[in-house]
Amino acid sequence: MIPQLPAADEVFAAAARIAGRAATTPVLRSRTLDALAGCTLFLKAEHLQRSGAFKFRGACNAVAALDAEAAARGVVTHSSGNHGAALALAARERGIPCHVVVPEGAVGAKLANISRHGAVLWRCAPTQAAREATCADVAAQTGASIVHPYENRLVIAGQGTAALELLDQAGSLDVLVAPVGGGGLAAGCALALEVAGRGCCLLLAEPAGAADAAHALAHGAPPQDFVPDTVCDGLRARIGAPNLAVLRAAGAEVAVVDDAATLEAMRLAWQVLKQTIEPSSALALAAVLARAPQLAGKRVGVILTGGNVDLEALPWRA
Amino acid sequence: MIPQLPAADEVFAAAARIAGRAATTPVLRSRTLDALAGCTLFLKAEHLQRSGAFKFRGACNAVAALDAEAAARGVVTHSSGNHGAALALAARERGIPCHVVVPEGAVGAKLANISRHGAVLWRCAPTQAAREATCADVAAQTGASIVHPYENRLVIAGQGTAALELLDQAGSLDVLVAPVGGGGLAAGCALALEVAGRGCCLLLAEPAGAADAAHALAHGAPPQDFVPDTVCDGLRARIGAPNLAVLRAAGAEVAVVDDAATLEAMRLAWQVLKQTIEPSSALALAAVLARAPQLAGKRVGVILTGGNVDLEALPWRA
């Protein structure tokens, strides 16, 4: 039994909780990309979400759902990326403490993004075991509530609100495309489709160098050894167990995309869409282009997940 | 007497003509930029307009206003930039011929952008006199209607629809900021404010290395010698006579901005807004930051004019 599995309608509760706090991001259209892809694209601009990625939705839902007593003790998580920054911002807005466990070697710019929202940073050794142990220690010491980056049911439901909005803004969709890493957004999308997108299929995009979800859906379980190797820095996490369960139940399909195609799509998005989306986001667009025959003539929604990129280190030759 | 001066309400007629053809671009908001600028910013995303810049509005209005006989003979202009591409696209959509006179040495990528919409390119020597003479020759030979990039009243009225929409989307504004080159957008904005933005001031932004409009407004006439020297490749044209007359009547102010500040603002927009706006657009944002004391606490609209940038040659160190 997996206690964290959210019921599909929790996505509606999440939408109510985060209304007025998370941004209702625009849906972008492009005749040029439609012609290239051979379908009608509805691109949900979550790189324009608060804190620069969709993750603010889940963090905000988790923080808003705490009762006053629990809230006063704060929240804690382990993350060196977008979830840490999102949780720090959501906590600051509710006026409660936020602790983020970050591994040695984490990127300076990302740490700055977390601490500028007032979170307390706790350093640990760069292993999964050390991150989880330190997180548990901080929770024990402070009484803070642990908010896992993607296995938490409130986080999953919060991420799903991006898909809810997209379905509403687009009118109807035949296919919804989203990247999958730990599976917070992916599972949230599956739930949103269950309650508001019957008839719409879920197509996930995963880096070839971190394709544990694809492996798990094809073979019944994630691979034994998992050493992520991809330029998609936001998608290196292992697929979560509750997340996998939701995806399996939803019949989600996974398109595995290599980094070269991802960077090609990233450049295309910057040139044509004029949006500085990060590699982990461009992956979804690359999947659409790769699956053009399957998507021909259809109404295809794509979640553009984030835009936290280092302009000094663009991945194509400049 | 300057026959081309449009009456202010021609902006409304333009809006009606281009409805459904030009895109109603979004207005972007940013808490980060608001904090930096000290005011409330409403950023009109014209870099997301069809053909990648606001110029499609004016071109579309000019093409749509032609009667059937004139339309059949087509349109002609001289431009190697955004106006040429915009006119080519507008003409193709009406199914009429388009001729664009381009000087020797014009950038290949921009030429490709014009010819891919089916326009006929006419080459000429790289001088203002040659451009105008060749344009007149083509018009005489083909009977095509000349559509000047910024002195044409229909073009001016069309550009003004960007400001009309922004005023409507923002609710009300205290200041409207737009870049000025030839003055098509600038004059259009002045007209829009006259009919829909009483109480809103017009603040133009001009490159220090091409500040002929600022000079003209300050000294009564444009400078004798004008050799543009700026990274803002969209703003090297001389201010048009009818345009200057409109701006003078509107009491427009000009903030002169150097290229360093412009590139700084461009980097900021790419990083914070996640929009790949071109230098000529970033100039307007640089002007806002430079004029922060004057704009403190106000509702400030900014037209982000275009996003046609060469990703291989970004102006900051990458």
From TrEMBL, chains A, B:
InterPro entries: Ser/Thr_deHydtase_PyrdxlP-BS (IPR000634), TrpB-like_PALP (IPR001926), TrpB-like_PALP_sf (IPR036052). GO terms for biological process: D-serine biosynthetic process. The keyword Lyase applies. Keywords: Lyase, Magnesium, Pyridoxal phosphate. Its cofactor is Mn(2+); pyridoxal 5'-phosphate; Ca(2+); Mg(2+). PANTHER family: SERINE / THREONINE RACEMASE FAMILY MEMBER (PTHR43050), SERINE RACEMASE (PTHR43050:SF1). Belongs to the serine/threonine dehydratase family. This is Threonine dehydratase. The lineage of its organism: Bacteria, Pseudomonadati, Pseudomonadota, Gammaproteobacteria, Lysobacterales.
